[in-house]
Amino acid sequence: MKIGFLGLGNLGTPIAENLLQSTQQLYVYNRTAAKAQPLADRGAVICSSVAELATLSDVVFTLVSDDAALQAVTAGEEGIAANLKKGGVHVSLSTILPATATSLAQLHDEHGSHYIACAILGRPEAARAKKLNLLVSGNTDVFETIKPVLEQCGAANIWAFGSEVGAANVAKLCSNFLIVSAMESMAESIHLARQSGIDAEQLMHMLTQTLFASPVYSTYGNSLLKEAFLPAGFTLKLGLKDVNLINEQASTVGVQLPFGKKVQELMNQCVEQGLGEHDWTAIALASR
Amino acid sequence: MKIGFLGLGNLGTPIAENLLQSTQQLYVYNRTAAKAQPLADRGAVICSSVAELATLSDVVFTLVSDDAALQAVTAGEEGIAANLKKGGVHVSLSTILPATATSLAQLHDEHGSHYIACAILGRPEAARAKKLNLLVSGNTDVFETIKPVLEQCGAANIWAFGSEVGAANVAKLCSNFLIVSAMESMAESIHLARQSGIDAEQLMHMLTQTLFASPVYSTYGNSLLKEAFLPAGFTLKLGLKDVNLINEQASTVGVQLPFGKKVQELMNQCVEQGLGEHDWTAIALASR
């Protein structure tokens, strides 16, 4: 299978590198072409347009910043849907609304190709370590066909969320919401502990050995203790984009999210304070 | 050492049972005397007053509902401080403010006895399984002396938080705050997932195998999925008491807790809706 990859950002690049290790031919496209050069140096072929990428590939991965960017590269005469061969598969890795996934899947369907939602749990270092968790939804036959390619992205686990194409996007939004909520609650606890004169490192050590012995609490707890907000692993601005999607989805389906609204408010404060390019753990600074 | 135990509630009873297994003589006192009878049937001696309990014991454990109740059994002529022998130790297991611990430690000091703060992480079933985590603070020499007795309470781990006597109370408040925040964020995620048409069981299964593989997320996540709010493991009313203490402590030390205020608001709504005796996971019902 010929593989295409569009979107060589912080997370896209290590995933494309993983694919390059196991595929005969990797086609890449990035709006900022310079970002594709290191991959080209290792054998990837740089395409000059989205349409060229789609035409040359059997399976095209996209990882872009938001719903509008994904729409822009997928729809239209020069987009992926119009140029991918019949039976080709568009694997969408971006964090977007389930409704966007549904409409793009419909568009691919009209062109005789397929759209699979594949949300990623994991930061760039997890991609490099091939420890990503992939949440997948869409046509189950298509999923089975491309599963070996998904594994080559750097997946430790692939979680199938069924044939409703937006399901993986919902799961991803819920996951990110739980992460940001855990961050905010840890930030508040650490601040309360310190101002109360107790050793917050010891508190977090105890908690991450017992009740909260999990990767999110260990990793983000550590960042919060160190106030290691730069360089960003995942920027607050991108985190806020996800939190906005979470609240939009909640509003669409009529669910109240008291914590969802609160983290949105706190992250907006952070962006207003000029912290948009800090790591999203900088949400800790909002309530200081 | 002669051990005394005051406060035979849901959690006090299994801890007293554990102590009874390894001590020669256990004295017990409970305001509602009938609750002491099962322990007496197994060899414990029921005392008729707090003063009698304190007079007969070398180490007295207390586990009562709040700061005022602890003050009431500790201070005054009939209280523990006035009746415990010189060098005796009061081990306070209740969830209270650090300032209360400090003032009671001072009172014991004036009477030539000691006060150790020993906060408990764990529900009654963990006490029965001897899997409690104990968070301890206070005079370190005294702590070392009574450590074997603390182990007999049903401790899997004992975490020493130093000589500042209120430290364990702060650690406990922070822990409970993290738990209730995790509960609320899971409740919101589960509701959002279900209303968006995805399988919340599968979502939580994935999360508790990966990013959130921890006891709090597994246990409370499971309760939230099942909406198993009765019978209560820990009542919402008691949880709200702790959340009130968390917010009071934050206010004392000048810390803003956006999530702390929000959970307080949600739990107050639940109590107003008559859910005070439900399990505190019923916080999930506030935003429906």
Topology of this protein?
The structure is a homodimer of 288-residue chains.
Chain A: E1 3-6, H1 12-22, E2 26-29, H2 37-41, E3 45-46, H3 50-56, E4 59-62, H4 67-74, H5 80-83, E5 89-92, H6 98-110, E6 114-121, H7 124-128, E7 132-137, H8 140-151, E8 155-160, H9 167-195, H10 200-209, H11 215-226, H12 236-253, H13 258-272
Parallel strand pairs in A: 1-2, 1-4, 2-3, 4-5, 5-6, 7-8
Antiparallel strand pairs in A: 6-7
Helix pairs in contact in A: 9-10, 9-11, 9-12, 10-11, 12-13
Keywords summarizing the entry:
homodimer, 288 residues, alpha/beta, Rossmann fold, eight-stranded mixed beta sheet, 13 helices, 52% helix
CATH architecture of the largest domain in chain A: 3-Layer(aba) Sandwich
Number of separate helices of chain A? 13
What is the CATH homologous superfamily assignment of the largest domain in chain A? NAD(P)-binding Rossmann-like Domain
The rounded distance between the terminal residues' Cα atoms of chain A is 52 Å
Quaternary structure annotation: homodimer
Relative strand content of chain A: 5-15%
Query: What is the CA-atom radius of gyration of chain A, in angstroms?
Result: 20 Å
Order of secondary-structure elements of chain A = EHEHEHEHHEHEHEHEHHHHH
CATH topology annotation of the largest domain in chain A: Rossmann fold
Number of strands of chain A: 8
Poorly predicted spans of chain A = none
Q: Reading side by side through the largest sheet of chain A, how are the strands ordered?
A: 3-2-1-4-5-6-7-8
Tell me the greatest interface.
A-B, 64 and 64 residues
* CATH class term of the largest domain in chain A: Alpha Beta
Largest sheet of chain A: 8 strands, mixed
Helix content of chain A: 40-55%
Which geometry of chain A do the CA atoms define? globular
Q: What count of domains describes the coordinates of chain A?
A: 2
Q: Give me the secondary-structure category of chain A.
A: alpha/beta
Overall average residue pLDDT of chain A: 97
Keywords (chains A, B): NAD, Oxidoreductase
Domain 6-phosphogluconate dehydrogenase NADP-binding (chains A, B): 2-157
Pfam families (chains A, B): NAD_binding_11 (PF14833), NAD_binding_2 (PF03446)
Domain 3-hydroxyisobutyrate dehydrogenase-like NAD-binding (chains A, B): 166-284
